[in-house]
Amino acid sequence: MEVEKTYEGHVVVLPYPSQGHINPLLQFAKRLASKGLKATIATTYYTLSSITSPLVNVEPISDGFDDGGFAQVRSEELFLESFKSNGSRTLNQLIKNHQTTNNPITCVVYDSFLPWALDVAKENGIIGGAFFTNSAAVTAIFSRIYDGELRLPVRSEDCPVVIPGVPPMNLEDLPSFLNAPESYPAYLRMKLNQFSNLDEADWIFSNTFQSLEYEVMKGMGEQWPAKLIGPMVPSAYLDGRIEGDKGYGASLWKPLDDGCIKWLDTKPPNSVVYISFGSMVSLTQQEMEEIAWGLQESGYYFLWVVKDSERHKLPKEFVDLTTQNQEKGMIVSWCNQLEILAHNSMGCFLTHCGWNSTLEGLSLGVPMVGVPKWADQLTDSKFITDVWRVGVRVKMDRGVAMVKREDVVLCLNEVMDEGERSLEIKKNARKWKELAKEAISEGGSSDKAIDEFMITLKDSCNVRDKTMC
Known about the structure:
The protein is an alpha/beta fold. Helix content is 41%, strand content 15%. The longest helix has 23 residues, at 76-98.
């Protein structure tokens, strides 16, 4: 008779239901499971079918819009309010359903966007840990706002903004709505609510690593005692300790077999520009045209991910040229970004500088050209350019707040040629790749932080009831 596997604790991991939040929290769940914990992802009914992992269980909770998620309501305020009430109720039920099993839930690790999950954990007498999906630098900025040390709106005359451990920040380096807080009120509230009950959390996790943001963490001190456990990038691209872990295991879009890798196989090493603006960014038609003609003018090979809903914004002549001569470039609606960035033909990553993409670029040693559009992307771009020095940022035309084709060409040349700046960027990219791998490998700073959490859970499990865990 097969004996049921016993675990040293059972963690429920609760992500905010968008791709950029599901990926790192699911990856954390896989890390925990690979080390002997039972891990369950609790996600909304609408995103349930998009998540699969042999290491992790997936169970539903409700945001109140089970048929269509956020798209069903189209209002941040209503969605967040509904998720709080329905999510609290159904997460509580999920915990209670497991109480009488051989593996009762002993901890909830929740996306910091969802602080109500900590209240649910505490009501059930179990450990609660907040997981921050952005950089420590961005957290430092918002914690200062929450504490009243940085007042909104931030104006140009208030700059540079000086925060311990963070380089002096001008308006173009700060999260975009800090000088116009009324532009995204629900999003700003959500960012600030991360700190509302944080002092009650047993653990705080951050998807970054010690060497990457050492100065920032030193500057924050005891104000934010987080455990740095990143980068939460699939194991195959870092330490290789989780068998078969080549992808996150979550996709809210249907992947297509677009032949990207076969096309890349025909290109010389370090010769291709990869362009992707993530799942949330929507460029204007004029911006798409400027980037398109900038790529064409640069003469470099390119692979550009353009969502089907955005494709009509591309210039017809550019699409025709690319379709007629796929030798020079490919336009696809989806690809496995990690596989692309890991390919030896990759020369640089033209990116919106979202934190997940930034960590992937760093972890795979790919130089970056930043085109940040809003929110935390501007701060990430500042660090890419001026702190880690692994890329450059495309200058914005101040009059219309958009990129120009000549600046795209200039930045691509700066990263892709063999000039002094390019050589420095490539050297730094290689350095950060090694440091990212070192952090998450056995005995590395992030690996040790995860092990410390595991020991705490094991002790907690033993205290509760040895026979149940």
